[in-house]
Every structure is written in structure tokens, then in C-alpha cells.
Amino acid sequence: MSTLELNAIDKSYGPLRVAEKIDLSVEAGSRTAIVGPSGSGKTTLLRMIAGFEFPDRGRISLDGKVLFDAPAAVPAHQRRIGYVPQDGALFPHMSIAANIGFGLSDNNAGKPQRVAELMELVELDARMLKSWPHELSGGQQQRVALARALAQRPTLMLLDEPFSALDTGLRTSIRKVVEQVLAETGVTSILVTHDQSEALSFADQLAVMRKGKLVQVGRPRDLYLYPSDEEAARFLGDAIIVPARLESGWANCELGQIPIFDRTRTGNAQIMLRPEQLQLRDTVTCENGSDGCLATVTESDFGGHASLLTLQLPSAPLDMHRGARVIQVRSLSIHAPKVGSTVFLTVMGHAHIL
Amino acid sequence: MLVSLLALLPLLFVLAVAIQIGWHTVQELVFRPRVGELLVNTALLVTITVPLCVAFGVAMAWLTERTDLPGARLWSLLAIAPLAVPAFVHSYAWVSLVPSIHGLAAAVLLSVISYSPFLYLPVAAALRRLDPGIEDVAASLGLRPWAVFFRVVLPQLRLAIWGGILLVALHLLSEYGLYAMIRFDTFTTAIFDQFQSTYNGPAANMLAGVLALSCLAMLALEAAKRGQARYARVGSGSARLQRRSLLNRSTTALALLLAALTSALALGVPLITLGKWLIVGGTEVWDRASVLSALQQTLLLASAGAALTTCAAIPMAWLSIRVPGRLQRLLEGCNYVAGALPGIVVALALVTLTVKFARPIYQTAITVLLAYLLMFLPRALVSLRAGIAQAPVELENVARSLGRTPTQSVWLITMRLAAPSAAAGAALVFLGITNELTATLLLAPNGTRTLATGFWALSSEIDYVSAAPYALIMIALSLPLTWLLDSQSRRSAGR
Question: With contact defined as beta carbons under 8 Å apart, do B385 and B317 qualify?
């Protein structure tokens, strides 16, 4: 069963279209990440779901109940949708207990107990209940914000870049806590982020947004390996994109012959590989005749655990290229070949046709 | 919205009067030697006082904020303290000390004493906020310290200086008590005399028109001078702490002398005179019931006025922060214009209007409160705006997502967070009303006697002894104002 449905959502600010014909459905209990560069309209989309802003056209429904169908709109406070903004937005004039209990009605006898439960859920010490928001660290504030949003048992939880204000180490651990809490409570959630690795690891369903449009929606693994276009490919990670000639299930390119899934495609096309599909071997150990190509290491940027190698391919064997090509590959620093050496490149897995 | 339209009343009034009595009469009333004389007087007063105030304010601000002047914090408080003394009390103190004091020189002296804090405050605040990195860069580009001050620091203070100039100029134009007491004729005193002799005659109204135009010209001049340049720190990251320049011994002595002399003139004289009259009067002057009843009436009027003004400012401030738009800016602008108009113009407009259209409220507390609302709304608005701007809209959103209605969200979150600013704004209005003289004199119902009008009546009868308690109470009520202003400007600089 699908819980949240967006149909043909349009929204403009003056001449600027921030959402264009957006269709999205989110399964009950699933985690969806909307990812896109800043200014792509992802936060606006989230705010329209929350009810802080309204679309110009389109329809939003949650669990079969219509939230928006122009011009009728359910106001934000009647939607029961939890919301955790970027910096937590705790009420600075209220204690932690008052913040978490804000969404609960005052004459609810079980309120203190519910607040304590929530504190435990987000792994915060109950002694902090009397503290003030400014006395907490960024990570703790984010946990309180999550607990506050969970208090009213929302059917849907919206997270607007909730980890971006935290430093790198903390970010991962807080993300784990959030994932765990969401899994325990079974709340459907939507995360908006510009960090593709965060989105890839968080989501069951990933939606890539660009210039107000959803470019591609699907499972994170599928989007990573089979992006719809070059821009989406590069946004979700490093990509090597080379021209190739397709023929009966093979792509012929400078890197050699690489298998493709679609046996029917023929002719010229762009293919995409993720750098981790490339393997470097030194030329001595490789037996002749195996499929691949030779390349020269022209630069090596040491980056701790891995180094970024710049490889120069020899002049193109086929007529379709203009001169030599350069590709960049990461390699474990301890195995990294020296600048000037020649290496043998082989490709694992299939190539994706763009 | 309604309040803003109300704010336009004084302006419309001046226009309406001009149209009603016809161009010919207007010409006759406006272009005559008496008006020319007043214009010259007022212009001289402004052109001499303003540069003096600027020099004074900037020098004191530099000394207290950016040098190692001994006791800088104390001097900075003393530099603001003259604000606690209403201008007409300054005047009273000097007149009773040197009875022969009068004319332009006296007017300039007293104006500089009373109004230089208006320059000191914003300039000192701006100095505190300046990014010392800019000065370092200028020095590294080969500028000498003096050149750094004039080419880098002073231009950065432009906004503050023009803001201060505007305030001082508007006060010079609208002050009545100060100049009336030393018999120096300005537009405002002339309008007042005219009004008292002919009551609501076209002559007074036309003079008010000229005065209003002068004020608008000041506003326009300030807006034009503000320019397009950016004065906020460009770039992110937090600024380093400022370094204070070291003064050598002779400059320190000179600076201390300047500071001490100013404080003596601005505070010493009122204190000595007041002290003298209070001793002469003994306990007897306090016994009269009139002091107590004046205090009661003042507190009543001032609290009602402050409450009314703050309530009126809340929706406007909220709208201007949350849904800023052209219409909203225009409405807000109207209020600032009305607030810049002299009390006497506002008062005359309300007299005429109530006499013509709303006779029942003529000479009632309602009209007085209305005048206060128009005159002091900008004070409440500025404070509230700053407070609401500091409460992020995201908090309201979160509250709504937690099931509170929009009104509840604004009330529970934004207004609660803005409460300190609202209170500060209300306090400023309260104190403004406490020391207000002109509009109260013109509009208050018979038998009303506030501290200011009571003081005025007694000192006009040269009963300096009986007037002293009124002055003392006004100063005591105003002292928190200086503290409030000081702490506000410090907080805005992040200290």
C-alpha cells in the first residue's frame, strides 16, 4: 500500500519554476531520500508536503486522505506530519522536556511518561530533560528535534537536511540513530539532502531532483549503477563516461570490450562506468591476450588511504576519438603505481549505456 | 493597516488646510518676513548645532570605544546620560543658573548638550561592530593611522552618522520647551504662540505646514545620503576582537578633559541647579498633592499609551518581517514619516480633525493617546521588528507541524521570543510620553496635569522651586532609558 502520493505538483516563485509536474509515491514504512544540488527545489517540495507552502497545481494525499487539491488545502497543523529542520529549530525559550512535549496536549496524564519514552528512544539521558536547548551539543539538539516530531505519532516524518550542520564524524552516528529510531517506530520518512552518499545509504527509494524536476526515482543501487543521464551519473558519484560502439551485447571502446545488458542496441553511444569497476594491474603480471588496455600514470594525488591517479590512455585505436583520453581512478595508496609507469586496465561488470 | 492610514492624517491635514484656504492666502501667510525670520533662525540653529554634535559624538565614541582612555565604560555611560534629562529641563537648569542666557548662542549650547547623545549612541555602536580586519588591511596597504581613520573607519560610520544627524535635526525642528524657555524663536515656538493667541487659525496651520515640509526634507536628505553601499561585514566567519589604540599621556589628559567638561556641562549643571532648588524648597514642595497627582496621571497616560502603541505595532511588525512586500514597506514608511513630524504638527492636525469631525473626543484622553500613538509608534515598531526578526520562521513552522494553529504558533513561539524587545519598545514609548510636552499641552483635557505640563506651568511662572520635584521625578523615570539604550546597543554588537 502506498501512503504518500504526489500528483503533477507545480509550483513557481514568479518566473522561477521550483517544481514541475512532480509525481512521487512513497510506500508505508519506507524511507525515501530526495537528493539534488542546492536550488533544485527539493526543500520547497518538502515544505509543500508539510503544508508550509502550497503548490500552484497538483494533488497531495496521505493514506487516502487528500491534503491538497487546489484550491482546497489541509493546513499544516492538521496534517500530523512530523518535521525536523536543518538546525533542529528547538524552541529556545523552553526546556528540553517542554520542547518534546510541545505537540502533546497539556491535559494528557501520560505526557511525562511519553516524554521519557521518547528520550530513551533517541538515546538521550533523562537528566537532560531540565536543560535548555543552548546547553546541548548539535547532535543532541537534533535528537531532541526528532523526539519532538515523533511525540504526536506522525504518519509521515520529513527530515530537511538534518545532518548537514553536524561535523563529519557525528553525522554518521546521528544518521544511524535516526535510521534505527525510524525503523523501530515504523514511521514513513522522507529525507532531503544534497549529500549523495547520505542519500544512498539512508534510502529505500531515491529521487534525484534537478531544476524543479524529478529526474529519476528508484532504488539507490539502481540509480547509482544505471543513472538516466550523465548529470545524474556524476551527481551520485564519480563516473567515467566514454564513447563506444555497441554491437551484440558488447561495447567497444578505448578501455577494451565491455559487456552490456542490452543485446539489441547497436551503433555509437556514451557508456558509463563507475571508477571502482576499473582494476589496475602492473604490466608484468598480466598475461597477454586478456581484455583491457594499457595506460600511463601521469599524476598521483596522495589522499591518505587512497590516491587519485590520472591515467593517460594511448591514442585512440578507432576512428571515433580525437586524440588521447585521460581518466581518473582511485587506488589504495599502498598499491598505487608510480608516476610515469604503465599499467594494465581491466573492467569488471557491465557498462551502462546513457 | 488602519494605523498606517491614521499615520497619514497629519500630512493630509496640512495639505487639506492648504487647499481649503486657497493658494492666495497660503502665499500671504507663508511668504512674509516673519516666516523668513523663523526660517533663518531655524536654519542657523540646525547648521551650527549639527556639525558640533557630529564632531562631539564621533570624538567621544572613538575615545570611549577604540582607545585606552581610563574609565572608558564610565565615560560612555556619562555620554548617554544627558538623554535622561528632558531638553526643557536642561533649559530650565541653565536659565535658573544664568538668568541672562538667551538667543542663538544659548540655543546652540543647550542643543549640543541635550542632543549629542543621539550621535554618540549610533556611532559608538557602529564602531563596536566594525571589522578590525578592514583596518588591518588598510594599514598593510600603506595608510597611516590618521589616513586609516578618515579613509576607512569614517566612511564605515556614514550610516550611523547620518542616522544621528537626522534624529538631532528632527529634534531641533520639533522641540518647543527648550527654546521657549530661553526665548529663542523657532517654527515650533512660533506655531505654539500663534495657536494660543488665535486658536486653530490658518496662520498656525500654515506654519505647521512649512515645519512639516522641513522635516520631510530632512528625511529625504538622509535617505539620499544613505546610498547603496554595503556596510555589513562581507564574507563569513566571525570577526576578531578589536584592538584599542594607545593614547600618549598628553592626549589622554586632553581626552579626559574633554569628557569631564562635557559631562560637567551636560549633567553637572542640571544636577547643581536641581539640587539647589530642592534644598531651597525643602520637604515642603513635596507635600503638595499636585506632585503626586501629576505622577499618577503621567504613569496612567504613559502606560496606556505604551500598551496601545505596542499592540498597534505587533501586527505591523509581524507582517513586515514575515510577508515583506512593497505595500507593507509603504505602510511602514508612513509611520516613520508621521513619527518624524513634530508633536505640534500632529497635535494641530488632531485638534482640527476632532473639532470638525469628532467633537465628542475633542479634548479627551482618547485624542491624547492617539497623538502618542502617531508620535511614538516608530519606537515600538523598530524594537519589535528586531525581536521578531530574531525568531526564525522555522520555529513557527515546527509548531504548526506539531499541531498548533498558525495564531497559536505566533503567540506561543514568536511573540514569546519577541517579548523582551516588545517590552523594550514599550519602555521607550513610556518614557517618550513621560517627557512629552507639546502635544500634551495642546490636546490634554482641562485639568490634566502630567509631570511635564506641571513642570512647564510652574517654571513659566518662574516658580523654579516648586518645579524642581517634577524635574527630579522625570529624570528618575528616564534613567532606566539610558541604561536600556546602552545595553541594547551593546547587545546588537554582540557583547
Answer: yes
